[in-house]
Amino acid sequence: MNFLALPKIELHCHLDGSLRSETIIDIAQEESIQLPSYDKDELQKELVAPLQCESLDEYLKRFSLPNLVMQSEKNLRRITFELFEDAAKENVKYLEVRFAPLLHTVKGLDVEDVIQSVIDGMREAESRYEIKGNIILSCMRTMSTESAFEVVEKGKQFLGKGVVAIDLCASEEEGFCERFVEPITLAKEYGYRVTIHAGETGFGRNVLEAVERLGAERVGHGVFIKDCAEAYEIVKERQVVLEMCPTSNVQTKAVQHYSEHPIYDFHQDGIKVTINTDNRTVSDTTMEKEINVVNGEFNLSEEDYRQIYVNSVEASFADRETKDWCLAQYK
User: Where along the chain is the active site annotated (predicted)?
Assistant: First the structure.
């Protein structure tokens, strides 16, 4: 199959992990921001995590540099627009982008200004390309519970205006859900949908708790349900959708090799899986590459791909009109 020609849906993509290296250099030169190098090829080495990362924490180190240039409304609009532009050229029809607003307040931006700037960049891309999108607000597990409340409260006014969901991300420790029950419960009361990073490292039980304690409708990664029968069963029984990111999972050592990735076994067993980039720059990938990786290892049939596409559309946090439009794109 020619996967470039097929329509795609992406539900798990981090804004700060998906910047063009040329844009980082351009902004850094304009604003006198110090970079390790202003040569694109050299900078790329700093931005892309090796396939043989030692851990998730090593992978996450790649995010500090992009955030240097994501501290103004203008830059956030530009970077968001470019991500949607790149995705549109891959024939992505719908993209949910997530980011942690508090990371972009270093130079004095209000959280509300940060969120509005990202929405504005998305809207500009929607007006110019055949792509639709929504925004997911991430709370950092490395920050305080109070910071999660702040994101929930300040993002509330954007619900239905581009923002659709709340997320917990960053370094994963066992039992993290306990600390965030109250802010995520409040988010649900306000109308946020819920997706949680869990089971990306060796804690399958985190997925169980994300579903039971936090009400996760989708789980980012979820690889380690393979080692936790209770988590596996609740994901399968409740049809919790897994946002899987094969290249990222090899880099962070969730799996050692692509061939060991459980995505196809899950799919065959009736668990709803989706294919995503996670971070286009940090993982040096695209949606086409990720789908080709899965196809290369597991020989996807046309029906496999169609089912994953439909799963992705229905699992999206888009409204019904947008979902129907996305379904109509798959001829």
Answer: 200
Checking phi first, is residue 32 left (phi over 0); if not, alpha (psi -120 to 50) or beta?
A: left
* Low-confidence stretches of the chain (pLDDT beneath 50): none
138: left (phi over 0), alpha (psi -120 to 50) or beta: beta
Q: How far apart are CA 270 and CA 243, in angstroms?
A: 15
CATH topology of domain 8-319: TIM Barrel (3.20.20)
Residue 257 annotated as lining a ligand binding site: no
Q: Nearest CA to 88 among 140, 125, 46, 123?
A: 125
What pLDDT does 200 receive?
95
Asked if residue 324 belongs to a known ligand binding site, the reply is no
**What pLDDT score does 18 carry?**
98
What pTM was computed for the model? 0.96
CA distances from 157 to 115, 166, 326 (A): 10, 13, 26
What ranges do the domains of the chain cover?
Answer: 8-319
Alpha-carbon gap, residue 203 to 178, rounded angstroms: 14
Contact present, 80 and 97 (Cβ < 8 Å): yes
16 annotated ligand-binding residue = yes
288 is catalytic: no
Helices (H) and strands (E) in the chain, counts: 15, 8
Question: With the C-alpha atoms ordered 196, 201, 204, 209, is the resulting torsion angle positive or negative?
Answer: negative
| Residue 276: predicted pLDDT | 98
* Nearest to 312, CA basis, from 233, 243, 234: 243
Distance CA 279, CA 285 (A): 7
Which among 10, 96, 200, 209 is annotated as catalytic? 200
Q: Residue 146 has what pLDDT? A: 98
The radius of gyration computed from the CA coordinates of the chain, to the nearest angstrom, equals 18
